[in-house]
């Protein structure tokens, strides 16, 4: 048994609580993880995990052993890290997820340009409003629209965005103005982005209160199309100020509610917390952090 590999498998398995997902992280079969953990347990003379058909959990011994294993791996990295071949550590795939915003197109170009000295790093660039799962979808880095960062993120706030409810003067002349968001959602032509997780339009959100759109006039998978539907006089729609300011200035769109009825969202650059993060992921994260700091949203 390779004890070093066994410890690495154990630490990640303790983090994700799944032998299958641990195997995916290391690109080996689940049987390899199961066998190595079993051999490690036999070597220690104690079970590290409680197992059932659906999940694994750490035993009391496993809980006590985990920080020792982490500390050992960190010391091993410090001791031998300098002598490892840098090319070997800066190769492989980095998976990045982000929403399909038009002004994010330049980010990939600048990232790939910055990665020219590292031709062995491959980028998997997933632009979608679907919320991908860190473990199941093997996400290394993400950009996410959120009110607050999640607990398991190592996150940096990129910018704050104000989401306005807007409509064209032509549509407002036809329908009049709603008294509040609830009347707007129920009785007026509205639209929003498609939620792939539910198969319906995303709810509108005011504070922490979701407002469902029961019969939206337009549902689309990208913000550019949603903006065009509002400009065409078809719908009332939530559009970020950055995207619609020029149309507000020209009078082609009008803000329907005052600031009390608008939402403030944040863009976060994040990577999931991991006990051991590959150097290629750290490199790409640092490059994205610099790129995003230079972009004016």
UniProtKB/TrEMBL annotation:
<dbReference type="InterPro" id="IPR000847">
    <property type="entry name" value="LysR_HTH_N"/>
</dbReference>
<keyword id="KW-0805">Transcription regulation</keyword>
<dbReference type="InterPro" id="IPR036388">
    <property type="entry name" value="WH-like_DNA-bd_sf"/>
</dbReference>
<comment type="similarity">
    <text>Belongs to the LysR transcriptional regulatory family.</text>
</comment>
<dbReference type="Pfam" id="PF03466">
    <property type="entry name" value="LysR_substrate"/>
</dbReference>
<dbReference type="GO" id="GO:0043565">
    <property type="term" value="F:sequence-specific DNA binding"/>
</dbReference>
<keyword id="KW-0804">Transcription</keyword>
<protein>
    <submittedName>
        <fullName>LysR family transcriptional regulator</fullName>
    </submittedName>
</protein>
<dbReference type="GO" id="GO:0003700">
    <property type="term" value="F:DNA-binding transcription factor activity"/>
</dbReference>
<dbReference type="GO" id="GO:0006351">
    <property type="term" value="P:DNA-templated transcription"/>
</dbReference>
<dbReference type="InterPro" id="IPR036390">
    <property type="entry name" value="WH_DNA-bd_sf"/>
</dbReference>
<feature type="domain" description="HTH lysR-type">
    <location>
        <begin position="1"/>
        <end position="59"/>
    </location>
</feature>
<dbReference type="InterPro" id="IPR005119">
    <property type="entry name" value="LysR_subst-bd"/>
</dbReference>
<dbReference type="InterPro" id="IPR058163">
    <property type="entry name" value="LysR-type_TF_proteobact-type"/>
</dbReference>
<keyword id="KW-0238">DNA-binding</keyword>
<dbReference type="Pfam" id="PF00126">
    <property type="entry name" value="HTH_1"/>
</dbReference>
